[in-house]
Specification:
Length: 342
């Protein structure tokens, strides 16, 4: 259904409304304005927040407003907690291989503290915080991470989130767990409104996933000085590799443009070059470095490499297979398998 999901933070994944109202009222008190209760705050507060305060306190300097807000926020004793169903949904996305991002207007130091305290950092490929105007910024986010509009959704709890999604041409999903009520969300015309992230998970679980398209290379011949002993490494050995790469974009959108896919002629040359560039002790190390090359240099979302070594006369080959996921700074291994073939 989606390969990429951008999340708002406050009201979407994190319940920080009480501390936000407290900080807002602290700001308003400096301009002799009456405090807001929860209902009044939800009815009038909007993003981008500079526009809200320009309406609410037209003669105030934005820098002063932000300083008052941070002062209250930093000294508050109120607690922030994950929104119900948020952690379970993020774990669901991770298991499905869905790329997750944050786009929030929240002050970066406060946001980083919250996301670390709630132990959610590992769910996200990248987090964009301190973004005052999401409508202006979201095209930059999409371009930076190579996100295709038809594969991407933005989940948020406010009208500004919905309009930002529309600006990027992506699916806009309003969630009723935060700052705007359902009538306000509906006014922004999202593609769907959900009561909570648990409902979105149920919908996605019952929606068929897009068939995985891949490039497969069979029996790529490599020459490599490999082996445990120095004697074995002294003579190049013939190895073969089977390679499966998921595509960086759906085939339907490539329009026969090789720049939108993986040039397997260049890939073949590079992998052969890498295998012959230095001695290796273990076939496992070689397979991992080949897979990392595929995701780091050729931008494959994932790469599965199976390397066969022909060294023992009693067996046809021994092989090692590994899969590397290509998103984020912490690329990960899974499905490591060592096998012998008679």
């Amino acid at each position: 259904m989606f390969r990429n999901i951008i999340f708002d933070w406050s009201g979407t994944l994190c319940d920080d409304m009480a501390i936000t109202i407290e900080a807002t009222n602290f700001v308003l008190s400096h301009y002799n304005l009456p405090p807001l209760d929860r209902e009044s705050f939800r009815n009038e507060f909007q993003l981008p927040y500079p526009d809200y305060y320009a309406w609410k306190t037209p003669h105030a300097k934005l820098e002063d407003l932000e300083n008052y807000y941070r002062e209250s926020f930093d000294h508050s004793t109120l607690k922030v907690t994950p929104i119900p169903h948020a952690r379970e949904f993020l774990d669901f996305c991770r298991r499905r291989g869905i790329r997750c991002f944050i786009l929030t207007s929240m002050d970066p130091p406060a946001f980083e503290q919250q996301v670390r305290e709630m132990d959610m950092l590992h769910f996200f490929e990248h987090m964009h915080s301190g973004i005052r105007n999401k409508e202006h910024y979201i095209p930059t986010l999409m371009k930076q991470h190579g996100l295709l509009p038809h594969e991407t959704a933005f989940v948020g709890d406010m009208q500004h989130d919905i309009t930002a999604a529309h600006c990027a041409g992506i699916t806009a999903i309003g969630v009723q767990t935060g700052y705007n009520n359902v009538q306000q969300l509906a006014h922004a015309e999202p593609h769907m409104i959900i009561p909570h992230l648990g409902a979105l998970r149920q919908l996605m679980e019952h929606t068929p996933t897009t068939p995985q398209e891949s490039i497969n290379l069979h029996g790529l011949e490599l020459m490599c000085n490999i082996g445990i002993t120095e004697e074995e490494r002294s003579i190049p050995q013939r190895l073969t590799a089977n390679i499966a790469l998921s595509l960086p974009a759906p085939f339907a959108g490539m329009q026969e443009d090789i720049s939108r896919t993986i040039d397997y002629a260049l890939l073949t040359y590079r992998l052969r070059e890498l295998a012959g560039s230095k001695p290796y002790h273990l076939v496992e190390t070689l397979a991992h470095e080949l897979a990392m090359c595929c995701v780091q240099e050729f931008h494959a979302p994932s790469a599965t490499i199976e390397v066969h070594k022909y060294i023992l006369p009693e067996i046809a080959s021994c092989s090692f297979r590994t899969t590397v996921q290509g998103w984020g700074a912490g690329s990960s291994n899974k499905d490591d398998t060592f096998s012998l073939r008679a």
